[in-house]
Amino acid sequence: MRRSSHAARPGRVDVIGFCDNYHHMLEYLVTSKVRRRLLLLLWGEGERGTASELAGRIDAAFASTHSELKAMERALLIVAKREDGRDVYAANFDHPEAATLRRLVEAGRGPTALVRSREDDGVRAELKALGAPLGGVEEASSVSRPVEVLMKGVRLARRDPVVAKSLPVCFWRQRGAVDEQSLLELVARPEEKHALAFFLAVTAYLAKDRSFAAVAEKLRDHRVRSTRPFFLQTSRHDSGVRFPLAARWGFTMNVSLESFRSHFEKFVPRDQ
After folding, report:
1. Entry pTM
2. Domains of the chain
3. Averaged confidence pLDDT in the chain
C-alpha cells in the first residue's frame, strides 16, 4: 500500500502546525485584540512610542490603546519613560519571565519567527556561557569560537535590547580569549563589523580600556557618515535618547549610555 506523500515523517516536527498552536494559544490567553497587537509590537518587534504613535501603528483607537498600555504597565509587562513631556512606552525586557514571554510572542508571529526564535535562544545560551548576564537563559554546555559567538551576539543585539546591554560585560569577560587578529579576520559584512566595533568602543569607555578602543577604530567602517537607528525595529523618526558615543558611530539608540554603565558596573567589579 502506497504511503501518502502528506504523511508526517517519524520524529519530524510540524513547525507550521506547532506555531499555529502557539498562535491560537496567544489568542486564547490574550483575549483583547488591542493588547495582543501591543504585545506583538512591543515585545515581538521591539518597538517603542507614545500612546498615540502606538495606536496608529496597530490601527486602534487612542482610548483603548492608552487603557491597555496602563494595564500592561501595572502588570510590569512594559515600562514608561518621560521624554520631552510625553510618556514613551516600551517592553520591560528586565521582567523575570522575559524569556518565556518573548518566546510566546515570537511564536505567535508565524513559523519564520518561531524558527528564528529557537536560533536566537541558542545564541543567548552561548553568550550566557561566555559570561553575558542574561536572566532566564540556560547556559550552553559548549560554545564555538568566542569571537564568532560575539559576532552572532552583535547581530542579535540589533533586535534585542537585553542582549545589547549585556554585550559589554560579555566582551570584557572574554578579553583574554578575543585577540585583535581574530577580530580583524572575522568573516562578516562591513556593517556588522562596524556594529561589533561600536560595542568594543562602548566596552572600552565603560572599562576605561584603551586596547579595546584601538581595535574598535581598526574595525570601524569609515564610510558611515549619517546616523540611523541601531535597533532594526526602531522607526527612523524616533531619535532615541541622548547617547553621544553612539552618535559618533552613526547610531541612534533608545537605550542610554547610563543604562549601559549601570548594567556594566552591576556585573563587573571595579577592580577587574
Report:
1. 0.62
2. 15-91 (1.10.10.10), 117-267 (no CATH)
3. 82
